Amino acid sequence: xxxxxxxxxxxxxxxxxxxxxxxxxxxxxxxxxxxxxxxxxxxxxxxxxxxxxxxxxxxxxxxxxxxxxxxxxxxxxxxxxxxxxxxxxxxxxxxxxxxxxxxxxxxxxxxxxxxxxxxxxxxxxxxxxxxxxxxxxxxxxxxxxxxxxxxxxxxxxxxxxxxxxxxxxxxxxxxxxxxxxxxxxxxxxxxxxxxxxxxxxxxxxxxxxxxxxxxxxxxxxxxxxxxxxxxxxxxxxxxxxxxxxxxxxxxxxxxxxxxxxxxxxxxxxxxxxxxxxxxxxxxxxxxxxxxxxxxxxxxxxxxxxxxxxxxxxxxxxxxxxxxxxxxxxxxxxxxxxxxxxxxxxxxxxxxxxxxxxxxxxxxxxxxxxxxxxxxxxxxxxxxxxxxxxxxxxxxxxxxxxxxxxxxxxxxxxxxxxxxxxxxxxxxxxxxxxxxxxxxxxxxxxxxxxxxxxxxxxxxxxxxxxxxxxxxxxxxxxxxxxxxxxxxxxxxxxxxxxxxxxxxxxxxxxxxxxxxxxxxxxxxxxxxxxxxxxxxxxxxxxxxxxxxxxxxxxxxxxxxxxxxxxxxxxxxxxxxxxxxxxxxxxxxxxxxxxxxxxxxxxxxxxxxxxxxxxxxxxxxxxxxxxxxxxxxxxxxxxxxxxxxxxxxxxxxxxxxxxxxxx
Length: 661
Fold this sequence. Notes:
A hairpin with a 5-residue loop joins strand 18 and strand 19. The longest helix has 23 residues. The N terminus is likely disordered. The protein has a seven-stranded mixed beta sheet. The protein is globular, with a radius of gyration of 28 Å. The protein is 20% helix and 20% strand. The protein is of the alpha+beta class.
């Protein structure tokens, strides 16, 4: 750098930073203590370490010409491939992201009050613009986590990527069913139980004919394009249904590799794996990351704290009854009129408390703010806690920190929402997209080293209190005889149960109370009436049939096994069957009564009063499913607390609306 260039850069930095009117930039709490500190120019201002050349995926501002192709609202940033990835290969070969579920968030139930409806306004915006989906139709599981509506949150690729409109092209990636387990932290042995997502490793596969090429934008499937094709559902767009050609417009979505590495940030510096610090799952470095480098971009969506409070569907009945009685007492028998309080302003019954969605544990928050920030970057929600190096500790210490990504945020002309008050944030017609933090390495990080972030002192104190009380909680469960109840997660039952018991057998040898059996089966009212199904009054009997797309999670329905028989070769002669003898253990076919699941469309619902019996179902078409509110995320007393960023000084002063005077 020549002396002349250095002088010009210093002048430009002073002009942009120190001479700008205060009203033109957000007032961030970090600058409160020393106003001059913000204008101390670094040695190489505006020079950032470039992404490593081995990076496969990058986040980069999208060209303005492509920002109108997204049918879920504009996405300011896009995911781009820096390498060629063949069809049917994983987009992220080292693993997939978490899946979170919002429980009983329906806003239409008669037992819910208007305040509850208003309490999900921002989440409804998330859903409208494709940031979250309905579990009943997403195909990623979670349908049975509650009795109300379940919404699925898919951080990472699914939320971050743009989505192609059906009339202009097709998505080029697709994700199947995530894995599900308790990460070696069972409920009766670990204080961590119930505090983390059970569904994980949601991995996207490339589906576009010819695969992705270097510079191509990754386009996710939010409209159910792949599912509709797999389920053979009709579509108005025959060109898209054909799927034989690449309909993506390279002019709209493709960037040069040089441009991506000049303006983008690497998305695959980290990958999900086993935590080396006893947390179960964690985020690990996929390559050497030098100190001061950007480890990962962290896009965030603002959300009011109150929107993560919820009650179970049936609890609203009790709340409504209590509030109506209390309203009558406090109003002297009047239900309306001047001076009366509304039902929504009344408290919950004395023996009831608001529950907190698991999503809270993954949000960043400040003790003095009603604003939460949900991070939806790739794999960033796997990152665990460790104290900072300045704290006295013998264990691991944090090796990354959070800061605003001015590099990415300054590439857009959209409103910087950091200058808005919380109420102004919530008045925005769309989710405030475009807020991006970044994780920066505090030291050199070796390949496969776990990435750790300091969650803050307030979080640490809350966790210590929870973990210290955990042994007492277990003793209380023992006193209440809760531990005597047999419990086995559904995924364990699927692993260990080879031959399924009939309903009659379960009267003597029942399964654990927390699970039930379900079958992959597609019922269509029109198809059933036209088939060779035998109808006897209110009973329908039909054979099980394998079909394309059958093992989609939306086809998983409750079912009860009523009989089983050996799964002999259906084409064998009687003499051959006699010679074959008993088939190997587990090779059985089952007859079951199929039932409806919540959220089914009208044409897939078995008519009320009809017993629908299906025969010849293989064991592979059955799954054990946790009953509503039975999995670990519903445990009473499970840890709930946002990740603290108070000490990180990233919250603007205008967001600190809970700050005491």
